[in-house]
Amino acid sequence: MKVLVAVKRSVDANVKVRVKSDYSGVDLSNVKMSMNPFDEIAVEEAVRLKEAGIVSEVIAVSCGVAQCQETLRTALAIGADRAVHIESSEELQPLAVAKLLKAIVDKEQPSLVILGKQAIDDDSNQTGQMLAALAGLPQATFASKVVVADGKATVSREVDGGTETLSLKLPAVVTTDLRLNEPRYVTLPNIMKAKKKPLETLRPEDLGVDVTPRLRTLKVREPSKRSAGVKVADVKTLVEKLKAEAKVL
Ligand code: AMP
Questions:
Q1: How many CB atoms lie within 10 A of CB 66?
Q2: Which numbered atom of ligand 1 lies nearest the CA of 115?
Q3: How far apart are CA 199 and CA 120, in angstroms?
Q4: What CATH number is given to the structural domain containing 31?
Q5: Count of structural domains, the chain
Q6: Most C-beta atoms within 10 A of its C-beta, which of 42, 160, 176, 235?
Q7: Is the pTM value of this prediction over 0.70?
């Protein structure tokens, strides 16, 4: 059984990004880039399935600029077996990525595709859902537990007010939430081993996918500053303030 994992190169989670002075986007020059944190969880889950003997091969895929290969090497160091880089210097929006991943799904025929629930740069939370729709596969988003057995994935997913459990017939698409697992640290010997693992490079044209952006960014602005809050002594004072000042009661 093969598992395909989508990994995005995105701004490191610890970086405080700045909006460019012309409001055209976020300034990414000299900014540390890393694997999207939800994708680390996705790779970890796939590798754990392999270590449990349920999966035979883990393939990591990344779409984007040449440096995505660094992200793929990290996935290989965590334990993926091989990697596919779909190289493009275009801005790749979720629909374009979903189409590229669909082409790889058609080619590789994985039993399970694991993606992050969202990329922390665009926060779109769209690619997994779009891929499932394009490929005609069942999906379970925001997974906090995945059990694979008897041609099915039983997925506990985080929903408002608790957890929902879904049973999906494989092949299926799963997107990860934070509580699914805690990704391992990559060790130096594994980083060295990862350098020798196979990494294939393709271009969107090789897959017959048009990645032209469909959405145009008009302006990117910092959120307006919030004024400082106040502490109230007790519930009575809070209710009075909500009535008299905020006028919401
Ligand atoms: P998004 O819909 O942009 O929030 O991304 C959701 C998930 O889709 C990410 O966590 C990745 O697993 C996957 N994904 C998005 N963009 C890419 C990309 N350029 N390359 C590989 N995977 C991606």
A1: 11
A2: 12
A3: 25
A4: 3.40.50.620
A5: 1
A6: 42
A7: yes
Residue 38 in contact with ligand 1 by CB distance below 6 A: yes
pLDDT band at 249 (very low <50, low <70, confident <90, very high): confident
Could you read off the pLDDT of 112-165 as tens digits, one per residue?
999 999 999 999 999 999 999 999 999 999 999 999 999 999 999 999 989 999
Ligand 1 neighbourhood includes 142 CB (under 6 angstroms): no
| Distance, CA of 25 to CA of 71 (rounded, Å) | 22
Pocket test for ligand 1, best of 115, 130, 180 (most atoms within 8 A of CB): 115
Domain housing 47: 2-224
Answer yes or no: are the C-beta atoms of 129 and 113 closer than 8 Å. Answer: no
Does the C-beta of 132 come closer than 6 Å to ligand 1?
Answer: no
Q: How many CB atoms lie within 10 A of CB 143?
A: 24
Residue identifier of the C-alpha nearest atom 4 of ligand 1: 118
